[in-house]
Amino acid sequence: MFQIGDVEIKNRVVVAPMAGISNSAFRLTVKEFGAGLVCCEMISDKGIAYRNKKTIDMLYIDEKRKTT
Ligand SMILES: Cc1cc2nc3c(=O)[nH]c(=O)nc-3n(C[C@H](O)[C@H](O)[C@H](O)COP(=O)(O)O)c2cc1C
User: Fold this and answer.
1) Average pLDDT, the chain
2) CA-CA distance, 56 to 43, in Å (whole number)?
3) Tell me: the pLDDT tens digits for 28-51?
4) pLDDT at residue 10 tops 70
5) How many domains does the chain divide into?
6) What is the number of other CB atoms lying within 10 angstroms of the CB of residue 24?
7) Spacing, Cα 16 to ligand 1 middle (Å)
8) Domain DUS-like FMN-binding, which positions (predicted)?
9) Residue 48 sits in which domain range?
10) Whether the Cβ atoms of residue 22 and residue 40 lie closer than 8 Å to each other
């Protein structure tokens, strides 16, 4: 186990960001297989500023699974 700030991560398996792969469904799947920490791909700040739908969709986080 390790900690980032006050967040405890249950193990040291960290899934790297992968463009076009690490979407919400992928992140949930690898967590179910035991990953301690997952992350999404890098997201363009310009895409967010321009409210690009594809970019905004990439920010989706399944709240039910946030801490499991
Ligand atoms: C298909 C694929 C997509 C990737 N996309 C990104 C990305 O969007 N941003 C990023 O910082 N790294 C990206 N990477 C790099 C990975 O995050 C990671 O740094 C790399 O695979 C090396 O990890 P390893 O030393 O555990 O093999 C990507 C890697 C792969 C294989």
Assistant:
1) 91
2) 9
3) 999 999 999 999 999 999 999 999
4) yes
5) 1
6) 16
7) 6
8) 15-65
9) 2-65
10) yes
